[in-house]
Amino acid sequence: MSFENYDWSDVVPIEQDDGPDPLAQIAYDPEYSKAMGYFRALAQKNEHSERALTLTEKIIEHNPAHYTIWHYRQQILFSLNKDLYEELDFIRNQVEQNPKNYQLWHHRQVIVEKLKDCSLESSFTEEVLNDDSKNYHAWTYRQWVIRTFNLWDNELSFVEKLLEKDIRNNSAWNQRYFAIFYNPTKPSEEFLEQEVQYGITKIKLAPNNISPWNYVKGVIAKSKLKIDVLEELCKTLYQQGIISPHALGCLVDIYEDRAKCGSINEKELGIQVFPYIMKRDT
């Protein structure tokens, strides 16, 4: 039943009070103002009913970022013992229209937490990320699902599919790092060495893409390896005529580390490389 079909004769709407002399009064849509008037009246008496639930849907249509309405909707859903799987369908439809609405994603988190069932969430977030692989809210929510329900096992394969599709997807690189280093099962040194080699193969495909460079450096920082392992790669790229500012910058880091250990020759090499970085880092 729609909002208009319910009997509201017993409800006296409470209008918004902006004070006697508002500085910049917002010109709300009349339908939205009407619905909010009913909401204030129902919320004042803490009414949890079917018409109140329908009212929240009406308001969400106008203002999907209204946190208070989402919270009120949750209270009604739980109070009426509504089918929360139907609510997940409702949320799915809302996400299609507003995929980057924080309140909407938080609402889904509350519902899934109440259900204690994450069986739909991996596929749901995968669909959203297939449409927009850099949707921050979808990634944040997916990480919450993984941590809460211990769904670490298949995450690397999911990320790999995204990187095969777009090697420059920085969000996927971040997720790969999350899947390895936030996992309660700590990676072995052998695994980390393999990850560095994995990153190197991706760097070779797109030497000027900063994402795999940052990823590999992050893995090295978490391992017993030193940044020297990238020296051969950097030199090979340069010899091939590929002037990557990230490779040159990496060489400077390598030479700087060695210079700190007293190598004057390495210090000079770093000084020689630096001007090339300034020319290429545009």
TrEMBL record:
The keyword Transport does not apply. PROSITE patterns: PFTA. InterPro entries: Prenyl_trans_a (IPR002088). Its cofactor is Mg(2+). GO terms for cellular component: CAAX-protein geranylgeranyltransferase complex; protein farnesyltransferase complex. Keywords: Magnesium, Prenyltransferase, Repeat, Transferase. This is Protein farnesyltransferase/geranylgeranyltransferase type-1 subunit alpha. Its EC number is 2.5.1.58, 2.5.1.59. Pfam families: PPTA. Belongs to the protein prenyltransferase subunit alpha family. One of its GO terms (molecular function) is protein farnesyltransferase activity.
